[in-house]
């Protein structure tokens, strides 16, 4: 197997089989430290929270607030990342004796983020310390209003700052740091850093570990890469989730059809997150937060049921809007730009995502309400949405987001000029070509057997760390396939190695006959008695 020289050195130094090195390399890992963190990383390997320049200051301020019995208010956000961040700090600070309350702005009625008008509510709560989670880095006006009232503000966020930083007591955001801190944290990862710092100061570090459950949920839902520290935190968090949960989380898993099932990032992304999100998308995010905070079984059951029916409503709404939006698509244009007065704002993002995936171009979907249009955009890789919007910023009332997703508000009368401007921007740009099925490479069964000794070190799989997928050519079929579960099982041989393979496509029954030679694409699985098995996905000619 040919390896990059850097990789060859790494594999040699760490005593890894080349196949393992190659897979690490495919995931962007090419130093010994990164490789060690990936394969053997544990909680102790997370970087110190005190690498953040304002951490010390923030932790001390919170400690004082707890000691003096001041009211601390957590200012959250409506999605899974924002809700789990809020739950994490509410429960975390309470466990240290803090008096804590929270606000999660209702995006439908209040829009995104902290605004000066939230200050009244904060005053009413008699809070003297506000901590934002998963938002705040652009809330300069909010920060100024709080300052005027003499209320201290600690901002924790993972978004890019604007031109001006808010005037806060302490600011914790990877994007405002000169120090080396992990950059790809979700909002809940940053909130965890703060709590971790606090627990370290209180000499009760081990007690912070169970809060990684919230980190796992929010990090997976926010679609940041499951590499580096994120992957360690998600791995640990999922371990805790699989060991047992609070009433809130276990009722949520029940209604998601996951009772007794092992939770991996897939279950979080496809079953748990949509239900948490449904609350904020079409009704009130507080329902989801109350569920995560719930300590009473009966209450948790009711809230979980409520979330489940909101999720069902969300699906119906989404299907209707998607159908209507699609009827307005002009596929000859370089982007999809559609709007209506009859679309619910809460599902625009999902609709934009689906359109963008289907047509492989940027999609912007707007709900027009009176003289303003609220839009959500999604974009395939290689077509940077946020750059496009900043080129058109003079037409926008507000906007924010990143390369692949953005939100924006525009005056109704400017919609058509915005469309023209964006079409001009995207004209001639095309999305990055991505093969439908990502492959880790061609390997012999010899390599695959060596990798199998390491395969338990590779999950959790998710964004940035996909399940390894291999190709092997010239494999001999040892016997005719026999029925197995709802598919078929066959023995495959290459050199001295025989490996059982599973497949589900009945047309393969004609290809996998005794004595035939096949080229296959497959993933690995642990079979009976923890032996190696392969899951055949494709047979190549
Ligand atoms: Mn977030």
Structural summary, described in words:
The longest helix has 30 residues, at 297-326. The chain has four domains: 1-40; 49-223, inorganic pyrophosphatase (n-terminal core) (Alpha-Beta Complex); 328-426, Diaminopimelate Epimerase, Chain A, domain 1 (Roll); 437-540, OB fold (Dihydrolipoamide Acetyltransferase, E2P) (Beta Barrel), CATH 2.40.50. Helix 5 (80-95) runs parallel beside helix 14 (286-293) and helix 14 packs antiparallel against helix 15. It is α/β, with parallel strands linked by helices. The chain contains 19 helices and 17 strands. The structure holds manganese (II) ion.
Descriptive keywords:
4 domains, alpha/beta, Diaminopimelate Epimerase, Chain A, domain 1, binds manganese (II) ion, 5-stranded mixed β-sheet, inorganic pyrophosphatase (n-terminal core)
Mean pLDDT: 93
Number of strands: 17
Helix residue percentage: 40-55%
Task: Give a short account of the largest sheet.
Answer: 5 strands, parallel
**Helical region count?**
19
What is the terminal-to-terminal distance? 22 Å
> What is the CATH class designation of the largest domain?
Alpha Beta
At CATH level 2, the architecture of the largest domain is: Alpha-Beta Complex
CATH topology assignment of the largest domain: inorganic pyrophosphatase (n-terminal core)
* Structural class by SSE content: alpha/beta
How many structural domains in the coordinates? 4
Q: Compounds present?
A: manganese (II) ion
Q: For the largest sheet, list the strands in their spatial order.
A: 2-1-3-4-5
User: What would you report as the Rg, rounded to the nearest angstrom?
Assistant: 25 Å
């Amino acid at each position: 197997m040919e390896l990059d020289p850097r990789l060859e050195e790494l594999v040699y130094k760490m005593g890894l089989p080349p196949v393992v090195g190659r897979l690490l390399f495919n995931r962007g890992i090419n130093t010994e430290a990164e490789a060690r963190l990936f394969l053997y990383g544990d909680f102790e390997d997370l970087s110190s929270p005190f690498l953040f320049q304002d951490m010390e200051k923030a932790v001390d301020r919170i400690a004082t607030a707890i000691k003096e019995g001041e009211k601390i208010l957590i200012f959250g956000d409506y999605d899974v990342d924002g809700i789990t961040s809020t739950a994490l700090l509410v429960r975390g600070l309470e466990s240290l004796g803090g008096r804590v309350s929270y606000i999660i702005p209702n995006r439908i009625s209040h829009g995104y983020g902290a605004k000066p008008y939230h200050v009244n509510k904060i005053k009413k709560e008699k809070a003297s310390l506000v901590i934002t989670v998963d938002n705040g880095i652009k809330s300069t006006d909010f920060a100024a209003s709080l300052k005027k009232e003499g209320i201290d503000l600690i901002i924790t966020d993972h978004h890019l700052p604007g031109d001006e930083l808010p005037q806060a007591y302490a600011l914790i955001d990877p994007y405002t740091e000169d120090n080396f801190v992990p950059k790809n944290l979700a909002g809940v990862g940053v909130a965890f850093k703060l709590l971790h710092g606090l627990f370290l100061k209180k000499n009760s570090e081990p007690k912070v570990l169970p809060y990684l459950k919230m980190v796992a949920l929010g990090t997976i839902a926010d679609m940041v890469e499951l590499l580096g520290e994120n992957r360690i935190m998600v791995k640990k968090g999922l371990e805790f989730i699989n060991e047992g949960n609070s009433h809130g989380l276990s009722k949520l898993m029940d209604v998601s059809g996951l009772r007794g099932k092992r939770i991996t990032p897939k279950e979080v992304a496809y079953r748990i997150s949509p239900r948490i999100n449904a609350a904020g998308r079409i009704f009130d995010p507080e329902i989801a937060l109350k569920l995560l905070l719930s300590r009473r079984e009966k209450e948790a059951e009711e809230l979980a049921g409520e979330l489940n029916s909101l999720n069902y409503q969300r699906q119906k709404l989404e299907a209707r809007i998607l159908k209507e939006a699609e009827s307005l698509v002009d596929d000859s244009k370089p982007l999809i730009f559609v709007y209506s007065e009859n679309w619910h704002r809460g599902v625009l993002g999902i609709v934009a995502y689906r359109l963008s995936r289907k047509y492989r171009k940027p999609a912007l979907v707007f709900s027009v309400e009176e003289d303003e249009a609220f839009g959500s955009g999604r974009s395939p890789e290689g077509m940077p949405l946020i750059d496009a919007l900043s080129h058109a910023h003079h037409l926008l009332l507000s906007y924010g987001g990143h390369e692949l997703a953005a939100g924006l508000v525009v005056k109704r009368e400017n919609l058509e000029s915005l469309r023209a401007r964006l079409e001009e921007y995207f004209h001639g740009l095309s999305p990055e070509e991505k093969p439908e099925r990502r492959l880790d490479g061609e390997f012999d069964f010899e390599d695959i057997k060596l990798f199998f000794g390491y395969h338990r070190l590779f999950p959790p799989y998710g964004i940035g760390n996909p399940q390894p997928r291999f190709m092997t050519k010239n494999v001999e079929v040892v016997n005719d396939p026999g029925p197995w579960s709802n598919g078929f099982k066959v023995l495959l041989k290459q050199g001295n190695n025989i490996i059982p393979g599973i497949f589900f496509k009945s047309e393969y029954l004609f290809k996998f006959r005794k004595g035939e030679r096949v080229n296959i694409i497959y993933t690995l699985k642990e079979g009976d008695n923890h032996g190696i098995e392969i899951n055949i996905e494709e047979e190549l000619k």
